[in-house]
From TrEMBL, chains A, B:
Alphabetized InterPro entries for the sequence: Creatin/AminoP/Spt16_N, Creatinase/aminopeptidase-like, Creatinase_N, Pept_M24, Pept_M24B, Peptidase_M24_C, X-Pro_aminopeptidase_P
Keyword set, alphabetical order: Aminopeptidase, Hydrolase, Metal-binding, Protease
Protein's organism: Kiloniella laminariae
Domain Creatinase N-terminal: 12-140
Protein name per the record: Aminopeptidase P family protein
Length: 605, 605
């Protein structure tokens, strides 16, 4: 959408308040999420951004008649100040100063605060309701979204064409997947499950689309039954003849508007319906319960099977990472050499130029479809901003003897990539080397971890942090997230981090390994490879089912930032073996000039 | 209680069934726990043992008219078969085959299954209720326990004399503690809290008693108010004049029978009452809710402050561990020398003799009051049974070239100890050394860990397991539990293990560090020291609040089981430094003979 001004936002806020007053509401909740709780939201659903100007990927607005607040997390405390007019919205911390508390303080007895029950889960609504009720107010569901009513030029809902995801890449038919889901529904005691996560629908039906940026999704709902039937609630415009002919006769296509009625019918028929309380819109639960359904609240049944990649998906992931690695090699040679040559001139390489150039290299890669997220291209101090997004205004030059961090990925038809490399333009100082090597030691500790069946990512997280903790350092983000197969670059349920993971690591799960270190105002370091959980190779005397990781990302790690003296012999062996593998796998895809460069930067240390 | 026979249990089961039938019930739930959910249960409340013969520390019985089942966890699968007659009770796994599932299968529509709402928490009842209701039955609270009605020689409730725990040991007055609790109640929005955990009451009021074995408790309830008032519901017989004069005038003593009426009165007065859903009897919640109280469900407010030991408690803990360490040195010299001399004769040292001898050494230690738990004295294969309890029948000889594991502790007026040492009687083979050294490496990794504020024990657990995981080995118990100060040898809320810890590690928290390895049928290895969480010492460049551990247990680790070649230089330094500290601290308490021995067994490697 075109950039709005502060006065635009003032006007929008005034018109929303007028609409609220007309509808008999004293306030309204404006989440950043849409019905599908996804990371990428189509422009039609970017309500918080339209209202406030805030463009971050997580946040919440609350509008009362006289005041309003915007709630963002630690990643966005600076950005919200740049994007949102403080005279319109008070800034609050999403976690430490939650909206429920603000509502408890600001709501007056008798006030009616409205929310859109399609945009929030039961859990989200529950916390807000407690705050409003403590203050003596009432939280009420607005079935017509008052903001949509005043957003006169609201874009249309996206209606990209869908495409079948063929067996050569999916590796498993929708029918087989539904047989697996059927077994899991039966064991949860449910007759059917509502799927509100579009990546679950995409996986289950073997379809892809282009409704949002960077994730090849069709925004839609589905209901999957224990007998293998599926109702797919999707805009008819999105259905191509290719998609249609790839679906089998157990899949019924219905208009999105039919969802509520069908849910009510299932409920009245006495079905036990599974919903995922973490992500399912509250409205779905309400319709089901009002019509007498027994609800089974449990994790979306597609989440764990989707996370366990099948052999065809694994082969695709490996192949896409080799091609992507070769593009990264071309980029790294270009950026380290060119940035150094042009450093200090009046035409330095900039973050923006680097990101664009990397995109050009990726576009040459076979089966490339899109970036898997907006490239994070951070020079010097911008590298210390974990979720930095380069703009024309923010773009810094890549200076001599400064660190440059680039976190990027591609959507390839056979796999999704996500890689971070940190390089020095020129020469590194001792502190940079120490910090980089500690991050590398943590990365290696995780990459080489062996662990028993049943282990979750929370248990492994400290291995990646230990070399930093030993020096009194840390990083304020997770260590690993799940990655889809030509799907979301962030997917659940497994993760590696300080917080509880909702599922154990299982063979086939595909995760990132990305410890980092950030020195505010100076530089950022992150080393990210993707890894597959697998059964550990045979060893003498093993007494338990043992898993380990196969690293899939292949790309050099900058040796000029490595301090070999603080590494163990085993760590050095890992680094040399990894680099030998990078050379072996990527060399066939490179010309002589790049082969020579790769030989040099992956030399044994 | 005297050992009952299978036919006694058959008679008891028959009489319970007759009583149930008379009361109109089709079944009854018999938990192992009492009202206070404690590890040690007085004989009056050992209902499951009386009924079934099972003497383990966790379990559940379910009695229906025609069948009955006993549910025990992995620790007790062998023991339950030895103690409980299979013709009376079906054996089931407490976690993997939960009672709720068994009820769902066995209960017939319309059946009324009774439970005692004082003996189970809301969470425990909820799961059972779901099982019964899925089967079409009803789970009903029995306010008169039917088992007590047929247990003709049920012992009286314990009524030991209480004693004040004086400031010289407690370090903080009850009044000061209540001021802290008051602040925490206010921040949770509660007017008062029900304390059902007797160690919370003991800590809050600075009282101790002897109602159960090995933990100096007074079994009682209390209600603590935000204004600092306390009602202590305790049998008048337990109150000595010393206790009475140590209490201040904000503490009211009431008979236990008055609890329900007072809770109802608080509820009617509109009080917001905090209860801990994990441990509070369901009956307490019911009485409060039926009388209109608003409940705040949160952790018992004494748990976290109690876990953070104050400086006086810390000094007492350190002092008691030095004295206990000297007793352990006397024991270890005696057991390793004597067992070897007598091995192979017709008068070998036995597990039972060893445990008794250790008790004799401890009894000589100043301020000794009791063991802190039944000594685990396991020779050879018995060492591989994690919660082994030696009896005359099970007691094995300590044979030459076998491993002997001893896990024991004392209740001293100034502190509670818990220590495990594993020694070789004679000479160890290579496998034993490898396994012992891996356990030691894990122990050292945890003992030397540095970690940021906010870290929980689940995050650190893998550090202790990594050297075992690397070889495909593991142990099936937690790595660390909280320990009280002249209180429970197992206390919450912090712990170190594979499961989620309900609270982060904070300075002053006192925990065990006890990785192990168990080879079924051959031997067990465990190395356990207690540690205090503290702020890490000053280091250059630290960017975050950093904590580490102070090891408090002082006692040699058997060098004959150490394989130095698989240890890092840092690990060897830790071991030598630890042994130097053991020598320095314990030598002043030892005679020349023991000094010489200690010098030898703590020599640098």
């Amino acid at each position: 959408m075109p950039k709005a001004t502060n006065s635009d936002h003032a006007v929008r806020l005034t018109s929303l308040r007028a609409q609220l007053s007309e509808a008999g509401f004293d306030g309204f909740i404006v989440p950043r999420t849409d019905e599908h709780q996804g990371e990428y939201v189509p422009s039609q659903a970017q309500r918080l951004r339209w209202l406030s100007g805030f463009s971050g990927s997580a946040g919440l607005g609350v509008v009362l008649a006289e005041q309003a607040a915007i709630f963002v997390d630690g990643r966005y405390t600076i950005q919200v100040r740049q994007e949102v007019d403080e005279s319109l919205f008070t800034y609050r911390h999403l976690i430490e100063e939650p909206a429920s508390e603000w509502l408890e303080q600001k709501v007056q007895p008798g006030m009616k605060i409205a929310y859109d029950p399609w945009l929030q889960s039961e859990a989200q609504v529950k916390s807000l309701r407690e705050g409003v009720e403590k203050a003596g107010g009432e939280l009420v569901a607005a079935l017509e979204n008052p903001l949509d009513q005043v957003w006169s030029d609201q874009p249309a809902r996206p209606s990209s064409k869908s495409m079948p995801y063929d067996m050569a890449h999916a590796g498993c038919s929708s029918k087989e997947k539904r047989e697996e889901i059927s077994r899991s529904l039966k064991s949860s005691g449910a007759d059917c499950a509502v799927l509100s996560l579009p990546d679950s629908v995409a996986w289950l039906l073997n379809v892809r689309g282009e409704d949002v940026a960077h994730t090849p999704l069709v925004l839609s709902f589905a209901v999957v039954h224990a007998d293998g039937e599926v109702q797919w609630f999707v805009d008819n415009e999105k259905i191509t003849s290719e998609t249609l002919s790839a679906l089998d006769n157990m899949v019924e296509i219905a208009e999105p508007g039919a969802l509520e009625g069908r849910l009510a019918a299932f409920a009245k028929a006495g079905k036990k319906v599974l919903i995922d309380p973490a992500t399912c819109p509250e409205r779905v639960a309400t319709v089901l319960e009002q019509n007498g359904a027994k609800l089974v609240r449990a994790m979306d049944p597609c989440q764990r099977p989707k996370a366990r990649k099948n052999p065809v998906e694994l082969d695709g992931l490996r192949a896409s990472h080799i091609r992507d690695g070769a593009a990264m090699v071309r980029f790294l040679k270009w950026v380290t050499e060119t940035a150094l040559t042009r450093a200090g001139t009046d035409d330095p390489v900039t973050e923006m130029e680097a990101a664009n150039r990397l995109l050009e290299f990726r576009k040459e890669v076979p089966l490339f479809r899109d970036l898997s997220f907006d490239t994070i291209s951070g020079a010097g101090p911008n590298g210390a901003i974990c979720h930095y997004k380069v703009t024309e205004e923010s773009s810094l030059p890549l200076n001599r003897d400064e660190i440059f961090l680039i976190d990027s990925g591609g959507q390839f038809l056979d796999g999704t990539t996500d890689i971070t490399r940190t390089v020095i333009i020129g020469a590194a100082n001792d502190e940079m080397k120490d910090r980089f090597t500690r991050v590398l030691k943590g990365h290696i500790a995780l990459a080489t971890a062996k662990f028993p069946k049943g282990t979750s990512g929370m248990q492994l997280d400290s291995m990646a942090r230990k070399p930093l903790w030993d020096a009194g350092l840390d990083y304020d983000h997770g260590t690993g997230h799940g990655v889809g197969c030509f799907l979301g670059v962030h997917e659940g349920p497994q993760r590696i981090g300080k917080n509880v993971s909702p599922a154990p690591l299982e063979p086939g799960v595909f995760l990132s390994n990305e410890p980092g270190y950030y020195k505010a105002g100076e530089y950022g370091i992150r080393i990210e490879n993707l890894m597959i959980v697998r059964e550990a190779g045979k060893m003498v005397g093993v007494e338990i089912p043992l898993y380990d990781f196969e690293t899939v990302t292949l790309c050099p790690i900058d040796l000029r930032l490595v301090d070999r003296t603080i590494m163990t012999a085993e760590e050095v062996t890992w680094l040399n073996d990894y680099h030998a593998r990078v050379r072996r796998e990527l060399t066939p895809l490179l010309d002589d000039e790049h082969k020579t460069w790769l030989e040099e930067v992956t030399r044994p240390v």
